[in-house]
Amino acid sequence: MGEVRCHFEGRLAIVTIANPAKLNAMSRHMWQQLRSVFDSISDNKDAGCVLISGASCGDVQAFSAGGDISEYPSFRFNEASLREFHEVDVWGGLQAMLACDVPIVARIDGACMGAGVEMASCCDIRIAGASAKFGAPIAKLGFPMAPKEAEVVVRAAGEMTAREMLLEAAVLDAPTMLQRGFLNRVVADADVASAVMQSVNRILALAPQAARLNKQTFRGLNTQNPYAYADSAEHQEGISAFMAKRKPQWAEE
Questions:
Q1: Would you place residue 227 in the very low, low, confident or very high pLDDT band (cuts 50, 70, 90)?
Q2: Based on the number of CB atoms within 10 Å of its own CB, is 77 exposed (0-12), middle (13-18) or buried (19 or more)?
């Protein structure tokens, strides 16, 4: 069945996609857990950053190889149950990631296919190993990508890349996805962990309120009163620390 688990190390929420026997493929249960995990992170005022990655799969690594196909015959051949799967289970998980105001960093090792691409598309920073592979070859299984999920992938990966993945069942390598703007960085496989933690630590060293407000702005939510932070303690501390040439002390630390 697999699981999506989360634990905190200080202000860092570490989310793990864990279904090693199936290269971290997402089951219905895991989509439901993804939603619960990110809802709880959103509610945690102390959370400063999220790191999401796939569990170790032994000799073969994977962020997520897609959906758990073994479950598909139990619900995909009925319109009502298929709609519930995509609109409630899958979209519930993806929407919880998209709605999270805490910065999300994706560590992408190995296979990032289908559901993996969708989850990665919901992250703010994407760092991959050089051997990572990306695609959504679901046309080989006889079905399209659900509209809301496709919109997320198009927004993150670009329409050209999404069309190539879905219409050709193309599998693209990490350097190509970097060139096309989907990835922030590609590093040697052995260096992924350190590169990811460098990004995480940079985020954690910055103003947490500012990060949350930036994410709201990205979603078009912080428009009615975007300067309400003017008298906030964090705003005053940041400016004061700069003027005093000292490191700022954020309240959440």
A1: confident
A2: exposed
In the chain, which residue ranges form alpha helices assigned H by DSSP? Answer: 28-43, 79-84, 91-98, 115-121, 147-157, 159-167, 174-179, 192-204, 208-218, 233-244
Question: What are the chain's domains?
Answer: 3-202 (3.90.226.10), 207-244 (no CATH)
**Is the pLDDT score of 222 beyond 80?**
no
First to last CA, the chain: 37
Whether the predicted pLDDT of 221 surpasses 90: no
pLDDT category of residue 183 using cuts at 50, 70 and 90: very high
Rounded (10°) CA dihedral 152, 156, 162, 165: -100
